[in-house]
Amino acid sequence: MNEHHEGFLKILAELTEIENRLKATETYEILDNISDLYLGNGKVNAYIKMNEVNKEKKLTTNNYKDLIDVYFYQQKLLIKNEKDEAIIDLIELFSGEFSDDALDYLEKFAYHSCDEQPYALSILLLLAKIEKRKEKTLQNIKMRFNSFDEQIKDFVINYSSALFLDERINFESY
pTM of the predicted model, to two decimals? Predict the structure, then answer.
């Protein structure tokens, strides 16, 4: 077996381990069930159910790491089915309920070069759009912008331009 195959098998084993760990959590089980509702009865019904469950279980406060880790895992899948997309959408919908601790957890990934970086940045920018820690998020991105690789810089510029249509945010001049 050559190095390419060994590397692929190692990545596959890591993803399987992550998937098994995440699927064993109560948070994943809840997302899995609500994603079925999402696919069968629509986004609104799933959102209502997720809101009920969040009030009871406080997922966005107590289980934010699981939610974010599931989000990262789902985003990394090369082939996503409808259920995967539904889970991603549900987490994005509920990211507005994230506590400051959850946002701090996201920032650990957003400002360091890693596979999760674009996904963490996308949630933080989405939340900045709804004014959740907007100034702090944009300031942090501006301060670290020059340390991002070119692909991440392009992503930040393009994604923020799509989100903030009425604003021209210059990340490079900080």
Answer: 0.82
